[in-house]
Input
Amino acid sequence: MKFKKVYQVLFLTALGLVSCKNNNTNEQREADVFVVETQKIEAVSTSKQLNVSGNIEGNKTVRSGFLVAGKINYIAAQEGETINKGELLASLDPESYEIALEMADANLSQMQDDYNRIKELYDRNSVTESDFVKITNGLRAAKAQRRLHAKNLEDTKLYSPIKGVMLKRGVEEGEIIDKGLPVFGVSDIYKVKVVAAVPEMELRFIKLGKKANVYVPSLDSTFVGNIIEIGTLAEPTTRTFNVKIELNNPDLLIRPGMTAEINIPTDEIKSQMMLPANAVLHDVNNASYVYIVDTTKGKAFKRTVSLGKITGNNIQVVSGLNLNEIVVVNGQHKLSNGALIKIK
Output
């Protein structure tokens, strides 16, 4: 009897231990299963985007200088200031030109008196035809000389030929300059042009009047413009063609000399694989990889991929994946190769 009771106690103890072990094993298995979210890889149709860099120019830039030589005695405009058409930019010391005009006035007055006297005699046939022609031509020359000196005096003042912004001031008060030397640069920037170099293989996607998105990094802003000019001659060294895009600039924020990144949507439609950018992980060698789901085994396997451009929250898959494969998009940071998963 005692032996039988001892046997029963041993049997129940062993049974309890087995049961405990089975429970621990089940709990361990459940702990090794990771809950994840997945997404099927599908083809997305998008238009080809042409991306190039460019520089900004004024719509019209005029370099102005005096038509006469002299010493600058006044400068009205500073660099960066807005200038109206016809507004005074600078002037030269006019004294020498004023003196020359006074001398021309005196000479003209004298010639006019001589002409009036000779004309009266000529009307009475008291002088020869040649003498009258001579005094007539002398009066004409005196009048022309007077107009020339009056113009020279007027040209000691320099006015802006266009409405715009003073880009460059190349002189200071007191400097002596020669005539024709460009000393001021005024640019109309109420509209600006973005000049981009487009590779010859991409030129077929460019059309006049087409919209273009222009990002100006210095302003951290994107503007929409129109293509207004397509070059017909390639640059010999780069084999690129100049393309110009016009932008409205009413607030004068965009200035000549700024750089820009240009995006031009094309009419070419292409199909590509996209997946959420947050699904991509990187190893110690900075190689990109994702986890692919094997639904038959309930496991996730590591797959190295090559990636392309980012569009919004998605990234292009160049290689490494196939259509309709299932990728882990959430919970992948906890996984290892071959990990058991449960799809949420």
